[in-house]
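Note on ligand handling. Small-molecule inputs were canonicalized before submission; formal charges were left as drawn, and no protonation-state enumeration was performed. Where a ligand contained multiple stereocentres, the stereochemistry in the source SMILES was retained. For nicotinamide-adenine-dinucleotide, this procedure yielded the string shown in the input block below.
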Amino acid sequence: MATPSSTRLDLDGNPIKPLTICMIGAGGFIGSHLCEKLMSETAHKVLAFDVYNDKIKHLLELETLPWNGRIQFHRLNIKRDSRLEGLIKMADLVINLAAICTPADYNTRPLDTIYSNFIDALPVVKYCSETNKRLIHFYTCEVYGKTIGSFLPKDSPLRQDPAYYVLKDDVSPCIFGSIEKQRWSYACAKQLIERLLKSGKVQQESLWDSRI
Ligand SMILES: NC(=O)c1ccc[n+]([C@@H]2O[C@H](COP(=O)([O-])OP(=O)(O)OC[C@H]3O[C@@H](n4cnc5c(N)ncnc54)[C@H](O)[C@@H]3O)[C@@H](O)[C@H]2O)c1
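Structure output:
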């Protein structure tokens, strides 16, 4: 792994000040890799929150690791933990990765999926808004639903046109399946939190400037 560089520069050529990053869902697939990258290639500090830490144990265990002290794990369920607000206050940047996002769960646990991707994210959005913290909230291409091409009648000549299979941010219409199909619970919940973040109306003067 590369060693953290003390001379990382922003796009204007100015040195980047080390941040304290509150990463929720840090023990998951994306979070664990992001923690590895942040530890090995930056000087940022990470407050890592999750209910599991198996995937980041190797970053936490050895006191001899060069980033010793720059990553702290907090076993915390954002559904019910009064520490969340205080920990968010300590951060310069919040990254929310916590979600139920496994396709098998959309069909079998639609309610949990909706809670996880919408209701449970609300306190994070609220605390970031109240304390004016920058929030990076992960979304998904699922919010686009189906392509127009896949929705066209089977014998439509338009099905041959590649343009009908392109999904473009902020332009493509959103075509979901029927309410009967629980498979769309994830996409709908993700789209709703996305709309809330985009509205900027939950709290005035808040920062909702990022999504991934
Ligand atoms: N992995 C992908 O290919 C992909 C694609 C598109 C979008 N995303 C989005 O990126 C984000 C992260 O995805 P991932 O693949 O790393 O998922 P993941 O399931 O690997 O990680 C999510 C983590 O969140 C934690 N978590 C869930 N609920 C929690 C709670 N209530 N309190 C604390 N921790 C909780 C889980 O324990 C898990 O470690 C999600 O929002 C997902 O929708 C991922």
